[in-house]
Amino acid sequence: MIKKFLLSSAIVLCAVLALNAQTKTKETSKLEDPDNLASQYFSQVMGVAVDATSNIKLYKFIYEWIGTPYRFGGNTEKGIDCSAFTKAIYDKVFNTTILRNSRDIFSMVNPLPKDELKEGDLVFFKIKSRSITHIGIYLGDNRFAHASSTRGVVISNLNEPYYSRYFYKGGRILEGVKNDLMEE
Q: Per-residue pLDDT tens for 118-165?
């Protein structure tokens, strides 16, 4: 009886040790994965949950532009406006050409409420106007990147009173528009 108990205890102990070794191997490989490290870094820098940072190219592009001053009509590192920043992201990250003006870009999207936004969607604002005057790129966790007229390229929260007040709609580029643009 004691032999059976010792044998079964040894088998259970070996199984637990083997499972623990497998878990450590998975954790080590996950930590050494460059994309996972990048996700963790951008998650911390931009205040977005790690599981929301699936497009490393998007976060890297935004990170490189953070702090760029705002310039109406600008489209370079010396100064850029919100629609040019959005256009640049779609060109470089999503390989999609979109229009240059925030109102025109809105005509290319399927409008969405705030709670249906996904990473890479667009956010539109009507700031002290009846028409769309501002645009940004949704990152997840209510965070979005945009070229602010007062702070340049930054990441902001849709729940901040200012943005919450002027938020109009979110939008996702229509598949038909993407296909039409690719054919041209």
A: 999 999 999 999 999 999 999 999 999 999 999 999 999 999 999 999
Beta bridge partners of 79: 76
d(CA 70, CA 84): 10
Active site (annotated) includes residue 44? no
Catalytic residue chosen out of the listed positions 87, 134, 143, 169: 134
CA distance 174 to 160: 28
Based on the residue annotation, tell me whether 134 is a catalytic residue of this protein. Answer: yes
pLDDT the model gives residue 12 = 45
Query: Helix, strand or coil for residue 140?
Result: strand
User: How far is residue 143's CA from residue 42's CA, in Å, rounded to a whole number?
Assistant: 13
Give catalytic status of residue 178 as yes or no: no
